Amino acid sequence: MKSFLFLILILGSGFWCYENYGQNLPVHTTLSHTDGRSMEVVLLSRGQSQVTFKRQSDGKRFSCELGDLSLLSKCKVYWYLRGSRGFSVDKDPYLEGIRDEMKKLAEDLRLAIYRFNASETNAQKRTVVNEIEALELKVNKLKLKEAKHLSGWN
Taking a C-beta distance cutoff of 8 angstroms, is the pair 130, 139 a contact? Predict the structure, then answer.
């Protein structure tokens, strides 16, 4: 009975891994070209005929035709990115989080300008000005994080 339960557990975990393995992006792997060249890459997305990846050594982004990859590399791309329908380079969860936070900060800035205009005393105006400066600083920090991430500079 214990071995039967153990078998069920193993089969269930195998099925779960099969269903969820390709969902954890980015994927670090080695891709080989049909002429034998290979490089360490981070897979980003794939289309019907191309794969987009970032070279690990310097972070540069490339696109390559799937037909130019070795059979093993094609299998890796299809396996890791099997749910992809077209290019999704901008679907990076890290970048989406940064951009959502920038949208929130932009709304806070817009509202702070209204609060500044509604201020009656100089102390209130100075407080709002300090809040605006702090919000602008946060936006600039997020822009720097976004640029750093897009350049591949970690």
Answer: no
| Cross-strand bridge partners of residue 43 | 27, 53
pTM score over 0.85: no
Phi, psi of 60 (to 5 degrees): -75, 140
pLDDT of residue 26: 66
Question: Which positions ≥6 away from 40 have C-beta within 8 Å?
Answer: 28, 29, 30, 55, 56, 57
* Exposed e or buried b per residue across 100-111, where buried means at least 16 C-beta atoms within 10 angstroms of its C-beta: ebbeebeeeeee
Tokens of 88: 């999704």
Alpha-carbon dihedral sign for residues 93, 74, 86, 83: negative
pLDDT digits (tens, 9 = 90+) for 84-125: 544 444 466 777 888 889 999 999 999 998 999 999 999 999
Residue 79: CB atoms within 10 A of its CB come to: 13
- Asked whether the beta carbons of 43 and 74 are under 8 A apart, the reply is no
